[in-house]
């Protein structure tokens, strides 16, 4: 016999007083698992609660972001001090997105089968995010495949684009267009496969709008911006080439 029910969490007086989602207790003859993810009947036999509070996890992740941002800002200022503000921001963004793709998202790809029981920083962060999309804890085939491309293709490419910006490499805008379109396309597929199927998100609006929507929408907005910038710069390049060819032909005659 199989059933599921909502059960309260018991806490000691020394437990941290941060809000937590109501867990779901799933029973069958083989296992007894209490978790807070949706849909309530998903099996997570290796699941253990996070040791750290959501606030502390976000603070630690935020420190990593700040470190990358500061290091990238110092690097581009020293390597190419005359770079425009736009190029400096693009360099910093590519370093940050490369870090997230190549390390944070690669962690999911490598550890997806044991993620539910992880107490490492990235493991706990993924479990916290999974309250908005439980597919990350069930080794969903689409997510593992999509995140693998994101981690091992877009991650290194983002760092290479940062290098191209620093040395003013002519391939910068073509590669920037490639990664931007790839990120936007990946986000569209991610939203569609979740919203068009059953809900994998807890019913609280916070998890949907902040975790699920906002964190992914950042890459939609920034990706569209850099795709547009790339198209504009590539078009300018071809226009100048065409003008040069016309001018050369006139000089020959």
From TrEMBL:
It holds the Pfam family EBP. It comes from the Eukaryota. It is a multi-pass membrane protein. Residues 86-227 form the EXPERA domain. The chain crosses the membrane at residues 55-77, 89-110, 141-166, 173-194, 206-227. One of its GO terms (molecular function) is steroid Delta-isomerase activity. GO terms for biological process: sterol biosynthetic process. One of its GO terms (cellular component) is endoplasmic reticulum. Keywords: Isomerase, Lipid biosynthesis, Lipid metabolism, Membrane, Steroid biosynthesis, Steroid metabolism, Sterol biosynthesis, Sterol metabolism, Transmembrane, Transmembrane helix. The keyword Mitochondrion does not apply. PROSITE patterns: EXPERA. The keyword Transferase does not apply. It is found in: Membrane. Belongs to the EBP family. PANTHER family: 3-BETA-HYDROXYSTEROID-DELTA(8),DELTA(7)-ISOMERASE, STEROL ISOMERASE. This is EXPERA domain-containing protein.
């Amino acid at each position: 016999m199989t059933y599921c029910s909502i059960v309260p969490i018991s806490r000691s007086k020394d437990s941290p007083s941060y809000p937590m989602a109501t867990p779901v207790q799933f029973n069958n003859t083989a296992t007894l698992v209490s978790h807070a993810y949706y849909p309530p009947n998903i099996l997570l036999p290796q699941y253990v609660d996070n040791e750290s509070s959501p606030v502390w996890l976000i603070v630690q992740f935020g420190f990593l972001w700040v470190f990358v941002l500061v290091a990238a800002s110092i690097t581009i200022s020293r390597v190419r001090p005359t770079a425009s503000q736009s190029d400096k921001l693009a360099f910093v963004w590519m370093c940050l997105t490369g870090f997230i793709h190549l390390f944070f998202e690669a962690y999911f790809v490598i550890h997806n089968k044991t993620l539910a029981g992880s107490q490492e920083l990235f493991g706990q962060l993924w479990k916290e995010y999974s309250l908005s999309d439980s597919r990350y804890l069930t080794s969903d085939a689409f997510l593992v495949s999509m995140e693998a491309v994101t981690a091992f293709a877009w991650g290194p490419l983002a760092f290479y684009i940062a290098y191209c910006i620093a040395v003013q490499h002519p391939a910068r805008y073509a590669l920037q267009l490639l990664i931007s379109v790839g990120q936007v396309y990946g986000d569209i597929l991610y939203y569609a496969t979740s919203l068009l199927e059953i809900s994998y998100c807890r019913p609280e609006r916070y998890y949907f709008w902040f975790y699920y929507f906002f964190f992914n929408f950042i890459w939609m907005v920034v990706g569209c911006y850099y795709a547009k910038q790339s198209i504009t710069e590539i078009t300018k390049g071809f226009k100048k080439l065409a003008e040069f060819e016309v001018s050369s032909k006139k000089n020959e005659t």
